[in-house]
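pasting for ref
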Amino acid sequence: MDRFYSGPSIKSYKKLSDWFDFKKDNMILVNSGKIDIGQHISSSIALICSKITGVHYNQIEIVRLNTSFTPNEGKTASSLSIPHSGSAIKAASFTLRKNFLKYVVEKLDITQDEMNFENGIVTHKSSNKSFSYWDFSRTKEFLNIEIPENFDEKVLKEFKYQNRQKIEVKTINEIVTGKYKYVHDLTFPNMLHARIVRPPNYYNKFIDIDQKVLKSLKKMNIKLFIKGSFVAILSTEEFLVVKYLTIVKNSIHWQNIKDLTDGNGNIYNLLLNNQRDKLNVRSGGEAFKEDIPKLKDIKEKGSKTLNSIYKKSYLMHAPLAPSAACAIFKNKKFEIYSHSQALHDLKGTLVKAFNMKEEDITLIFTPGSGCYGHNGADDAAFEVSLLSKEFPNQHILLKWTREDEHTWEPYGSAAINILNGTIDKSGKILYWSHEVFSDTYMTRPSEKELNNFASYKLMNNNFNKNISTPKTAAHMGIHRNLDPLYDFKEKRLVKNLVHDLPLRTSALRTLGAFANVSASEAFLNELAHSMNIDFFDIRIKNLNDKRAIDVLTDLRSQMSREEIGINNARGIAFSRYKNSAAYCAVGVELFINDELDIILKNAWISVDAGEIAYEDGIIAQVEGGFIQAASWCLYEEVKFDNKEIISKDWDNYKIIEFNNIPIIKTSVLDRPSYQYLGVGEVVAGPTGGAISNAIHDALGERVRSMPFTKESIKRELLQ
């Protein structure tokens, strides 16, 4: 590697002062446009800054995102936080150190050999004069410094720093001692507490409310707000709001405009039979509205052709604490506290929704307890803003209920993956066809699509389904990782955006990659098994990317060091997320008992995320991602009927429990001076594929419908 790219954020924020603030003595305040919600972004960025500037890690503070002054680096999503913000801070840190030392040499008229440089302070050895970063920040020279978009290898090598340090994760003490403040914990004088009175489903119109209940609310000084079919209750006493929520809900007469689905609501039938946009996905991962290549029947002596269909259910974010938001509307300006991962985007959307100026809306990131992803965050922020404009000059804290979260958050879509492939006797894949059917993952509210706020539709009594336009950029939405990294001889890749499906969907972690990688890695094993080819060998044989091969080789080495348990089974899978982020290979060992319970025993992960910014952070990310993906594989499924969503609570939406977490061993391959590669979402698809393959190894039969419950196993084995 001969150049380091500073990342796209530097193009918009070129000044060093955009990223660093020195107003606190002996502290560097770092302005990042990315949000830390448990993925160790703050720790990683602080460590990057510390390594290069020479300032102690504990003296570096990552400023919480505030739309009035922190850089707009887009959404915190798609495993781009360290590639974008980490690269920007790395470039800013190099620039700071280089310009600071140059300034000191000129100001003190000394050489670098005559100075001691420690913890951001230069001391002249003979005169004992000193000059610090904090002194430098007050000069006009500092304010004019711009950050280069690229650094060459020679510049990078001038800076020697320790790559692997043991540090304390930012905010960890506050979190484990209960001192950490979440949006749910916010308190302000005379604050109103709010709850939304939800209809039975998306398609219910408000008709009227019992007059006796109205009188009771007035008597208790509980405020009622009704606009269209959007209904909310508010009080300074949270207990009263909680108590009357059910009373109000039961007193409202709703008109059912239409059912969630018809009487034949089998989601997989709908996925295959509903109207859809069909796009051709070329190698490289872009989608095009063009003629779809016909499925080929490859005839080559000694080859074998197989086809399979894989299914995945609707999945929810299911945060440990439901969504929440807080806002005040005062002096015709909004101040909004939200756990959304897209605050700058959300600001633009609210500007349009309320017809206001950008400078009149400020959003401040405030973490939600266990909340991340596109759960109800944006919806809650819009709802509390709507209420605060109606009841100005006092803060309003809106909390969703558990039922709100489970039934009104936007889900990750159900999907069907249809695969066809031909393998020759040497293990080379001659032909690969992969067709995916799914609803959109790209319905975050925007300036052009305010209807993506569920409550915006309710307040306008708009019960029409939105028709989504298919996204075409590389590895976008449904077709993320549809194009595998493998060097197959010929590929046919087809994206089907299916319309008029029953449930509300949007971005769930990995978007389409979880279903696509899980299915393709399982099918690759099917092809290998048909030719009796080793599962590692078939992957390596069809790869020409050395880093991918290194990751697989490392995983093989890890797994070979441990004997497989009696009656246990193993499976492996591999992917490079979006073919541009980190490389990841996963191995799983499991046991299936006579009752068809799947018990995870061991897991091995090998990952290459470029240069290691913070190794413990990478390990935490991939191991946490493994657990979430295992939960998707084995337990999670949104259930619904024609009238309502049934998965209203934890009893009806099962997640993995501690007693089924395997022993996980993770190996991180270091690539010094290489670009940072996003790691947050890389493990999900390989986990799905590895578990699927291990189940096949255990049963001798292929199970193709997630979640892999005993019911789905029985159903497929009996077919």
